Structure prediction request, 187 residues.
Amino acid sequence: MQGKAEKWEISLKALKDGNEKYLRAYKSDGDISPEARLHTFRNGQSPCAVIVSCSDSRVLPESIFSAGIGDLFVIRVAGNITDNIAIGSIEYALSHLNAPLVVVLGHTCCGAVNAAICGGAEGHIKSITDKIKLAIGDENNDYAACKLNVKSEARAISNALSQENVSAKVIGAIYHIDTGKVEFIED
Prediction:
């Protein structure tokens, strides 16, 4: 029987392989067949990873990783930030669906990160940019700020999960909008 550590490594390899496939694709290649729908209906879902992604319409986790129905548990929110509700969703996927890996997926040209850099957000958007600003400080380079935000969220998720005695590998990643390549941050 594989340990959880081995499972997350297998999941990470599947994501990396899926992204390589995506880089050569002209259409989404995940299995969305009637058979896959019926299988998950009868047997439930067993995602290989939780993806905490930005809501940006250019960032499609299932496509980016060539995943199909039941393969990923995706949580999307502007700036790929988390709150207690998102952490609860992550905790559910780890403890009830046995997903062994959490990936915080930021991306280049992120409007939420840019808004945090520029300041001046109002309304509910300010709650997003304020959290990102705490993560990025005075950084004003888009890529560097994105990376800081991803690392901060990965740490926050790890800390929240450890308080609940839920274990999983949590890593960051950056999706490059222009090329489609996912850069994994495993430090």
Observations:
- The beta strands are 49-53, 72-76, 101-107, 169-175, 182-185.
